[in-house]
Amino acid sequence: MIVAIANQKGGVGKTTTAINLAAALALRGKRTLLIDLDPQANSTMTFLDMQQVTRSVYDAVADGVTPMQEVIVKAPVDNLWVAPARIALAKLEAKLVGEMDAHFRLKDKLEPLLGDFPNVVIDCPPTLGLLTVNALVAATHLLIPIQSSYFALEGTDDLLETIEKVRARPNPALRILGVVITMHDKRTALARDIRAQIQKVFGGKVFETVIAKSVRLEESPAYKESIFTFAPDSTGATDYYSLCEEVIERVEARTA
Ligand SMILES: Nc1ncnc2c1ncn2[C@@H]1O[C@H](COP(=O)(O)OP(=O)(O)OP(=O)(O)O)[C@@H](O)[C@H]1O
Ligand SMILES: [Mg+2]
Known about the structure:
Helices cover 40% and strands 14% of the residues. The chain is of the alpha/beta class. The two termini are 13 Å apart.
């Protein structure tokens, strides 16, 4: 499975979900590749020191020559590898403009690696531009984090429209794996309302697992750790482990 974590809204928990879903898959003994497609490089910085990162996904995707294999770095976590981002990724759009295969670059570069990495998680930037479209074209599944906030559903129309465009031509097999509600504060009535609203729009696509607001989740990247080593007994660890179970169940139910 190749899961793109996307929502063009900023700060909704894409990166937190990408790093901890990838770490949960790795923890379950699954060889996993985390691809950082965000020039902000937050996923990359969680597992690697930027000094280690001499090349990035940009180098593999921008030119036809560098194989993806050459930019991948082993994370200091069993079963986990990272295809790192650097700020150079921000130039990709300009670089690929007018190229016939601009939307297919990541897919093509990833194909030879799928034997090695049966599980791929892609952290997308907060835009619906070429980087996110490359992720959606390469992906088998899309996971949408939605922040439990008053403006939660703002912008989801544009996201769904982009998904439909990708499904219409370049990637008809793309499936919405699910919507995960993040930063949820179950004590408030507002949060319960928001959950009901999200469920009204996305129905059964909404994962049972809701990611609660947790200071531990916020802290762990600064210590260069996933939640599973940083605070294994925290609600954040339980939530993301259970999200991972649901992800695996859904992927398996569909391929069975
Ligand atoms: N469940 C949570 N509880 C508390 N804080 C969280 C939770 N999930 C994410 N955060 C924090 O919220 C902020 C935004 O999260 P994150 O970086 O994962 O979002 P993003 O969608 O990747 O943002 P961007 O659009 O900038 O890439 C971060 O500071 C993160 O630590
Ligand atoms: Mg992010």
